[in-house]
Amino acid sequence: MDRYKMYIGGEWCEAASGAWFETENPFTGKVWAEVARGGEADAARAAEAAHKAFTTGPWPTLTATQRGALLRRVGDLIAERAEFLADCEVRDNGKLKVEMLGQLRYIPQWFYYYGGLADKIEGAVIPIDKPGVFNYTLHEPLGVCVAITAWNSPLLLATWKIAPALAAGNTVIIKPSEFTSTSALEYVKLFEEAGFPPGVVNVVTGYGPEVGQPLIEHPLVRKIAFTGSVASGERVNMAAAKGLKRISLELGGKSPNIVFADANLDNAVKGAIAGIFAASGQTCIAGSRLLLHDSIHDEFLDRLLAMAGSAKMGDPMDMGTEIGPITTRPQYQKTLDYIDIARADGATLRLGGGKATRAGCGDGWFVEPTIFSGVENGMRIAQEEVFGPILSVIRFKDDEDAIRIANDVVYGLAAGVWTQDITRALTMTKRLQAGTVWVNTYRAVSFTSPMGGYKSSGIGRVNGQEMILDYLQTKSAWIDTNPTFPSPFALR
Ligand code: NDP
After folding, report:
1. CB of 330 closer than 6 A to ligand 1?
2. Pair 75, 26 in one domain
3. Whose CA is nearest to atom 18 of ligand 1?
């Protein structure tokens, strides 16, 4: 069995306690590796190593242009090893190789983009309202940043945080999910190979409360970038409040995917499938509530059932597979429980509705693609994030009704709108309470465009230029060229 140590200060190390935990392959349901089970002492060691790298040694003396070059170099190395890293991800999280390889081939773009941005972080010369005084601003790094990630897209989520953090001159500690720790430990080797000094990028592994919480609370840590559930996000936010640390939270969603009568229905059916069955519904931006206009409801549902019902399930490593297993045992059980909840609440089961026992699914944690119609927006299946392949279909009467239903959840991560009418597209985009609105597409992301949540879906944004400011603090510098200092008892 493989054994994975942590990477702290440029060294591979076991947990101070000597403890390990097991990681399973969701397709076989079998343990395939052991990972160091970090705790408070390991969190402190990582924070100290990252702080040392931030304050001494080569990292703080590099020019922004040199930092940018290092980021681009690691981008090249990830591009070269994309297939190997994708295989690591699939073994640990069971998502489709076609999806993970696509992510790994795309990840270098974040390093190229933020590497390019590193030496374009400019301050301003401020025309100050006081004669003889010169004022300018500097954007400076924060220090040690902690990146805590979920299990669904481990390296993509880590990259969204660490590429801008490093471009800004910070040092980082990655704490991957206990379910998918191994890919981060392979990925970090490429930073060493690219020439990042020891301690600039560290990985600690273990359980959130055991090693994640002490990391957040460590006095040398200045920023926490977190992806996970709302419940954990609230705990992380409270822990970060002590010590007044910067925080960004990418949390869950219950996103509406709204199909109007004038939509291109062929595309909208594919968009509905992409919204909920891609990645077996295990995406924060899952379009888990499908809102259908009364006039197309039945026809649309028939087409959807036909397409979803013929999706190929099986080995996620097979490039032809369309739906893979659920990543974790608890998530598998939770998904099955929600099927029972929806039935008990009176939703009508139209497809799936349980474990998948088809040939090719083996002992893996597979759930059939499941569709409920007749869902009322007040039902738990429409209000609570499942994070599995379960779609709730909800009827609406008109545009006002669609907006009311769409916004009637605590979440606000994303929304989809399918229409050919430009006025409707613009109105919906304006009135939907979501950090991302897609019109006539779904599940599109880019390193250039901000993404994040309204309401309980999070705080802060990832991607795009402006979010680099989340990893910087502004200093205002005042230089007085006047020959004499005026009265010391009045505000200057
Ligand atoms: P969790 O909230 O369970 O865990 C997320 C991470 O936080 C894990 O690394 C976990 O560690 C860690 N963690 C948990 N509790 C604490 C704590 N008290 N202190 C520090 N760290 C802690 O989420 P899941 O991993 O189950 O991921 C699924 C969730 O992530 C969904 O809600 C999904 O919507 C959301 N998500 C949001 C995205 C976005 O961009 N908005 C993208 C992807 C997912 P461990 O598991 O090892 O205990």
Report:
1. no
2. yes
3. 209
Alpha carbons 390 and 377: distance in angstroms, whole number: 15
176 CA closest ligand 1 atom index:
9
Q: In what helix (H) or strand (E) does residue 89 lie, and over which residues does it extend? A: helix 82-93
Q: Is residue 311 located within the same domain as residue 386?
A: yes
What residue numbers bound the domain in which 164 lies?
A: 2-251+453-476
Instruction: Report CA 365 to chain centroid distance, whole Å.
Output: 23
Q: Which two tokens stand for residue 260?
A: 């109007």
Give the pLDDT confidence of 221-242 residue by residue, as tens digits: 999 999 999 999 999 999 999 9
Residue 162 or 363, more confident? 162
**Contacts for 244 with CB less than 8 Å, ≥ 6 apart:** none
Q: The tokens of 475 are what? A: 């200093």
Answer whether 207 contacts ligand 1 (Cβ < 6 A): yes
Q: Is the CB of 178 under 6 A from ligand 1?
A: yes
CATH label of the domain that carries residue 41: 3.40.605.10
pLDDT tens readout for residues 164-212: 999 999 999 999 999 999 999 999 999 999 999 999 999 999 999 999 9
Residues 68 and 158 in one domain: yes
* Ligand 1 mutation pick, 42, 92, 149, 177, max ligand atoms within 8 A of CB: 177
Q: Is residue 226 domain-shared with residue 347, that is, in the same domain?
A: no
Return the pLDDT at 479: 97
| Pair (131, 274) in one structural domain | no
Catalytic residue numbers, as ranges: 250, 284
Residue 65, burial from CB neighbour count under 10 angstroms (0-12, 13-18, 19+): exposed
Number of structural domains in the chain: 2
